[in-house]
Specification:
By secondary structure, this protein is α+β, with helices and mostly antiparallel strands. Helix content is 41%, strand content 11%. The chain has helices spanning 2-6, 20-34, 52-58, 93-103, 105-114, 150-166, 174-187, 249-258, 270-291, 301-310, 317-330, 357-367, 372-378, 380-387, 392-406, 410-418; strands at residues 15-17, 43-45, 72-75, 117-122, 139-146, 201-203, 207-209, 215-218, 225-228, 242-245, 262-264, 349-351, 438-439, 442-443. It has a four-stranded antiparallel beta sheet with strand order 3-4-5-6, with helices on both faces. It has a four-stranded mixed beta sheet with strand order 7-8-9-10, covered by helices on one side. The longest helix is centred in the middle third of the chain and has 22 residues, at 270-291. The protein is globular, with a radius of gyration of 26 Å.
Length: 455
């Protein structure tokens, strides 16, 4: 795994904590939340203040998330908002933390000058013992203050100032005035620098959780579903219409189509689509060649062609199915529809541009694991899991490719692979198109607009 770390593909873009004063602040916050301290003089933290170095020191990578459902956080600086969230149990946690920081940026900046801001992503449950518990999580409340309680003291001072200004005898209330003077020593000038952190709930609609081996919960769509990463026996009734695993290819495809969550990569345009599909073919060839013990250092386009010829019989069904699509594209054949049982099916899809775009692309990356680039971009935990089982040759190739091809132009690569980000779309366009029973290549066979609850 150190290869990934050295190339910035793991633990990248973390916030460095090395100044003695910042380390001391972090220790106060860590002790306040967990009763523990670190002996490290320098370390790095993610958006939540979790440090992989401290996790290793304490032999506890969940020291800020002990029960996996109410993540605690330590904010040393608002600059943490650009950092990733490590060991995330819910796909929504980072976006909620980032929005909280952006919504309170001025106040958090003022507070973090004095001390660490600590808090928790609070929902209605405190432990998860069955999949049913996940459906009690609907809104996430962010509770935060400094270790020294500056925000709470600021609220108290604001109330006293209001009483001083509004009560008839406030000007002669010596006790009230003395309390305000004492509180102001702690809070500073709250008129010029407000310290109140707005209390706000953040919706948790559709999401992925790593609990129970990985579950995708879709409850804010037309036909609700819980999709498990692997087959499992869920003995409780879940409040969704469908319950299946990623192995149920036809059912997953039908769900994605009915809810208008996906579109064909072919919609990106002939030349772009062909280029993307050829890259996926390259990744599959690399996987096969690596399994045969080939040396993959400095592989050229000519080398890839030679490997295709050499291992043509050993290449998996995904390769031959995708290759057939590429040939039909080159011949301008308009019969490009394939069924879900076709090994190429999910390799031909990407998410439509809606508010759950990242979640759907994450799901698709698990369905297309031979495309290691999409797996890395969309589902890093799954990528790291697969990486551990790869041969040294494939590890070296993947690290070199990602470092040299993806990391140098992440924005451009994501735009090419997934199209414009959902945030760039007007709110009324970023929907799921519930009004039409359409699949990614057109109308679902046998379905007509207006049926099945369509408006």
């Amino acid at each position: 795994m150190m290869r990934l770390v050295k190339h910035g593909l793991m633990f990248g873009n973390l916030y460095e904590v090395s100044a003695p004063s910042m380390v001391a602040r972090y220790n106060r916050a860590l002790e306040h939340l967990t009763g523990k301290r670190t002996a490290l003089e320098a370390f790095h933290v993610d958006i939540s203040g979790f440090s992989p170095e401290i996790g290793d020191e304490l032999d506890d990578i969940h020291y800020l998330n002990p029960h996996g459902c109410n993540r605690q956080f330590i904010l040393l600086s608002i600059e943490q908002k650009t950092a990733p969230l490590l060991n995330a149990r819910f796909s929504t946690s980072r976006s909620i933390l980032k929005r909280f920081i952006e919504d309170n940026e001025e106040q958090l900046f003022a507070l973090s000058i004095r001390d660490c801001v600590v808090g928790e992503l609070v929902n209605s449950i405190y432990s998860i013992t069955s999949p049913q518990d996940l459906f009690y999580i609907r809104a996430i409340e962010v509770e935060a203050d400094t270790v020294g309680g500056h925000s709470e003291a600021g609220d108290e001072l604001a109330d006293k100032i209001e009483a001083f200004m509004s009560e008839p005898d406030g000007w002669w209330d010596d006790v009230l005035i003395a309390d305000m003077i004492e509180l102001s020593k702690h809070t500073g000038d709250i008129i010029r620098t407000p310290l109140a952190i707005s209390s706000k709930s953040y919706e948790q609609g559709n999401f992925h959780t790593s609990h129970f081996g990985g579950l995708y919960i879709f409850r804010d769509v037309k036909e609700t579903a819980c999709i498990a990463s692997r087959r499992m026996d869920i003995v409780v009734d879940l409040p969704v219409k469908h319950l299946f695993s990623l192995e149920d290819r036809y059912e997953v495809a039908d769900f994605l189509n009915r809810n208008q969550l996906v579109e064909p990569i072919l919609d990106a345009g002939g030349s772009v689509a062909k280029s993307l599909l050829k890259q996926k073919l390259d990744f599959i060839v690399i996987d096969t060649a690596a399994s045969q013990g080939e040396d993959l250092s400095d592989v050229s386009r000519r080398d890839l062609r030679a490997l295709r010829r050499k291992y043509h019989q050993q290449l998996p069904a995904e390769y031959h199915a995708l290759n057939d699509i590429v040939h039909r594209l080159e011949l301008k054949d308009d019969k490009l529809w394939v069924e879900p049982e076709n090994a190429a099916y999910f390799y031909l899809l990407r998410s439509r541009n809606h508010r759950d775009k990242n979640l759907v692309n994450m799901l698709l990356s698990e369905l297309t694991p031979l495309d290691f680039r999409q797996l890395f971009i969309c589902h890093k935990d799954a990528f790291y899991g697969h990486y551990r089982s790869w041969s040294e040759a494939k590890k070296n190739y993947a690290v070199q490719f990602l470092a040299e091809e993806y990391m140098v132009d992440k924005v451009g690569t994501r735009l090419e692979l997934f199209g414009p980000e959902a945030a760039m779309v007007e709110e009324d366009q970023a929907d799921y198109g519930f009004g039409r029973n359409m699949g990614p290549w057109g109308a679902i066979p046998g379905e007509q607009d207006g049926e099945d609850g369509a408006q």
